[in-house]
Amino acid sequence: MEYFLLLIPFVTCGVLFIFYRQKVHILEYVITIFLSVGLFFGIKAWVKYTGSRSIEYLGYYVTSVNHYEQWNEYIERTCTREVPDGTDAGGNTIYRTETYDCSYVQDHPEYYTYALNNKEQIDISWSTYQYHVDLWGGKTYKIDMNRNYHTIDGDVRCADWNGDVYTCRCLTLTQGYTNPIKGSSSTYKADKVSKKEAGELELYEYPPVLEKEQSAILSKQTVSDKDIRKWKFLNAFYGYSHQIRVYLLFYYDKDVSVSNKQTAYWNGGNMNEMLIHVGVSSDSLHVQWANVTSWSDVPLLEINIRDEIMTYKDSPLDLHQLSDFISTNLGLWKRKNFSDFKYLRYEYSMREFIFMTLLMVIISAILARKVIRNKYHLHGVNKDDHHSTAC
Questions:
Q1: Longest dimension (CA), the chain
Q2: Contact 47, 356 (CB under 8 A)
Q3: CA angle 208–210–211, rounded 5-degree value
Q4: C-alpha distances in angstroms, 315 versus 183, 285, 325, 359?
Q5: DSSP per residue over 54-123, as a string?
Q6: Would you give the distance in Å from CA 278 to the centre of its chain?
Q7: pLDDT of the chain, 391 residues: tens digit per residue
Q8: How far apart are CA 9 and CA 362, in angstroms?
Q9: Which residues have C-beta within 8 Å of that of residue 230, sequence separation ≥ 6?
Q10: CA 370, 372, 377, 378: dihedral to nearest 10 degrees?
Q11: Beta bridge partners of 74
């Protein structure tokens, strides 16, 4: 449908030919068409790129906090400059090139970091560093950096995570990626759920990332801090090594079809996500049904988790035990690679189509105005006649 917009520059040229033929050189028709077509493909690619971008949530954990001490180094450097060296016969100053020592001392201030399990580091404040040192037992150790220092030999003071699940600093970082499912005629677009319908069904939005942490449990009822920490740890400790992110979603007094609506509302989820849907009764919180969805081609883990949850049917779900069950069976997880969906054709929405139409009309109008008002006409001669002089 979007290729019909290529008619706009041709229509523009038709209007110029009919109404402004004497003011337009033949090459200006060609330039107008080629510029418009080139801009069309640029706009089309940009709209497709922005419309197919998704945000992926990635889990990591902090292995240590580090204090990089202040240090300095002597930088040896030789510079040149031009200096006066007398005058010539005409009294003009003569210059010569002089070499001089411009060495200096480079100071490196102290700073603090998180060291993550993927070997990356993130800057933190002194108070955050000290908080974790105290939380993990108060002991630090030194790493000699063996620097070629000048007068201050700064090393690194480190404190390692003590291995306790409940003192682990769990981080959620985000990254954008191209999701071919968005904008395609996939199952989840055919069953697209609007924000209005999501509100009526009490579906969930993705939980916010606050201070680099995101909850893995979505529930309308209160969940204990201990369970929240346990499930954050699940995503943090295994997220990077197993390329997985787990969300546990609870529904109250609803049938299993709501889980399909939730999955559709999230466009099937990201490629690293597994959505665990659990239906419970609002009064007793007893398990009624379970459904586990992901993009995995081999959903062995998903089936095992669903069956495990259903062993709690008509009784409360033990979130601690379920988390341990998942971590024990993560070897069954097979993450989907969205490159498998490259064959899907992007389908522009009506809003995107209208946006591209308006841009093409504006571009064509600007080009037409330039063509009419410039100095060339049909025969390539200056259009302005006011330069002629009466004899």
A1: 108
A2: yes
A3: 155
A4: 41, 7, 18, 59
A5: EEEEEEEEEEEEEEE--EEEEE--EEEEEEEEEE-TTSPEEEEEEEEE--EEEEE--EEEEEETTS-EEE
A6: 29
A7: 688 888 888 888 888 888 887 787 788 888 888 888 898 899 888 988 888 788 899 999 999 999 999 999 999 999 999 999 888 888 899 999 999 999 999 999 999 999 999 999 999 999 999 999 999 999 999 999 999 999 999 999 999 999 999 999 999 999 988 777 776 765 555 578 889 999 999 999 999 999 999 999 999 999 999 999 999 999 999 999 999 999 999 999 999 999 999 999 998 899 899 999 999 999 999 999 999 999 988 899 999 999 999 999 999 999 999 999 999 999 999 887 766 677 778 878 788 888 989 999 998 888 888 888 877 665 555 545 444 444 3
A8: 11
A9: 165, 166, 319, 320, 323
A10: 110
A11: 105
Residue that the structure tokens 């030919």 belong to: 17
Let me know the angle formed at the C-alpha of 310 by 309 and 312, rounded to the nearest 5 degrees. Answer: 75
Is-above-0.85 flag for pTM? no
Compute the distance between CA of residue 121 and CA of residue 53 in angstroms, rounded to an integer: 26
Token match 């939380």: residue?
135
Distance, CA of 33 to chain centre: 36
Q: For residue 93, what are the β-bridge partners?
A: 87
CA angle 289, 202, 338 (to 5 degrees): 75
